[in-house]
Amino acid sequence: MTPDITKYYGTGRRKTAIARVWLTPGKAAFIVNGLALEKYFPMEALRLVINQPFAVTQTEKKFGVIANIHGGGKAGQAEALRHGITRALIDYSLELRSALKKAGFVTRDPRKKERKKYGQKGARKRFQWTKR
User: Fold this and answer.
1) Is the pLDDT of residue 27 over 90?
2) What is the pTM of this model?
3) Distance, first Cα to last Cα, the chain
4) Closest Cα partner for 48 from 18, 19, 20, 79?
5) Do the Cβ atoms of 104 and 97 come closer than 8 Å?
6) One-character DSSP codes across the chain
7) Residues 51-101: pLDDT tens digits?
8) Distance of CA 51 to the CA centre of its chain
9) Largest alpha-carbon pair distance within the chain?
10) Inter-residue contact 31 to 66 (CB < 8 Å)
11) Burial label, 116 (beta-carbon count in 10 A; 0-12, 13-18, 19+)
12) Domains and CATH numbers, the chain
């Protein structure tokens, strides 16, 4: 018989990156795609971005994090993971929502890469106009 372990789930998105996040109370392990956080995100700046929701709510070392991330680059994945952790923390306790909302972590960042248009060099760039 399996023990009754409570997990809190959140999905985070940023650009084309999608993060599925499970928080487990008590455990302090941080696993991303089967690797430790330090292995998957070697840059300290990205790890600081990921841990921001825990710092705002004073819940560091209270949760174990298991995340599956796909799509996008490392920076987009880090911000998607932050968004997923935020949603999972709100699932854990609705009282944390006001602090997370004030910090700006609840709202999904809607900015994406704009598509290239036909007859143009890029999304906004035009071909050079010549008079003669």
Assistant:
1) no
2) 0.89
3) 82
4) 79
5) no
6) -------EEEEEEETTEEEEEEEEES---EEETTEEHHHH---HHHHHHHHHHHHHHT-TTSEEEEEEEESS-HHHHHHHHHHHHHHHHHHH-GGGHHHHHHHT-SS-----PPPPPTTSSSSSPPPPP---
7) 999 999 999 889 999 999 999 999 999 999 999 999 999 999 999 999 999
8) 10
9) 82
10) yes
11) exposed
12) 8-103 (3.30.230.10)
Q: What does the block give as tokens for 26? A: 């008590």
pLDDT, position 132: 81
Instruction: Please give the Cα distance from 22 to 67 (Å, whole number).
Output: 6
78 residue type, one letter: A
Whole-angstrom distance, CA of residue 114 vs CA of residue 111 = 9
| Tokens coding 92 | 């854990």
pLDDT band, very low/low/confident/very high, at 5 (cuts 50, 70, 90): low
Question: Where does residue 2 fall: left (phi above 0), alpha (psi -120 to 50 degrees), or beta otherwise?
Answer: beta
